[in-house]
Amino acid sequence: METVFVLNGPNLNLLGTREPEIYGSDTLDDIAVMLDERAAALGLAIDMRQTNHEGVLVDWLHEARETGVKAVLLNAGAYTHTSIALLDAIKAIGVPVIEVHLSNPQEREEFRHISYVGMAAADCVQGLGPRSYIVALERAAAL
Ligand code: DQA
């Protein structure tokens, strides 16, 4: 069975209580349950992780290449808007990365409009709340 990495960056461990008016009330564990259900129906396995550390995300992207995963769903949180290291890692690994956001950064503060992740990602799903992850998984399945 093919695996899809679902990598989550800083502050996403606080989903459920973090600015619920923006990010909703589902926790990351709730989203993992939804993704597992959809993945099972699509015949995929999910490996979902969260870290607050930029370098750990880089290491996990390298691991995606080493283990030959089908695709990576990446919600890099605020590192989306700052991290040239993530941009370089996505370019380096040769694994399709789909950028994911719960909110729509394009409709928020100007500093969120730049996405280094988006400069190398194969696709982007944003602004749908937890459904962003599900739609991104469906797109990954179709790759
Ligand atoms: C986010 C959007 C980012 O701008 C923000 O820094 C986050 C969450 C989202 O899922 O909407 O941490 O990636």
Could you give the distance between the termini? 15 Å
User: Helical element count?
Assistant: 5
Major beta sheet summary: 5 strands, parallel
CATH top level assignment: Alpha Beta
**Estimated helix fraction:** 25-40%
**Broad shape:** globular
What molecules are bound to this protein?
1,3,4-trihydroxy-5-OXO-cyclohexanecarboxylic acid
Count of structural domains:
1
Class of secondary structure makeup: alpha/beta
Mean pLDDT reading: 98
Query: Could you say what the CATH topology is called?
Result: Rossmann fold
Strand order of the biggest β-sheet: 2-1-3-4-5
Write the layout of secondary structure elements.
Layout (H helix, E strand, L loop, with lengths): L1 E7 L11 H4 L4 H15 L1 E7 L3 H14 L3 E5 L8 H10 L3 E5 L21 E4 L4 H11 L2
Parallel strand pairs: 1-2, 1-3, 3-4, 4-5
The structure holds 1,3,4-trihydroxy-5-OXO-cyclohexanecarboxylic acid (DQA).
Written account of the structure:
It is a single chain. This protein is of the alpha/beta class and 143 residues long. The chain has one domain (2-141): Dehydroquinase, class II (Rossmann fold), CATH 3.40.50. It contains 5 helices and 5 strands. The chain has helices at residues 20-23, 28-42, 54-67, 84-93, 131-141; strands spanning 2-8, 44-50, 71-75, 97-101, 123-126. It has a 5-stranded parallel sheet, sandwiched between helices. Strand 3 (71-75), helix 4 and strand 4 form a beta-alpha-beta unit. The longest helix has 15 residues, at 28-42. The radius of gyration is 14 Å and the shape is globular. 1,3,4-trihydroxy-5-OXO-cyclohexanecarboxylic acid binds next to loops. 1,3,4-trihydroxy-5-OXO-cyclohexanecarboxylic acid binds at residues 11, 75, 77-78, 80, 101-103, 105, 112.
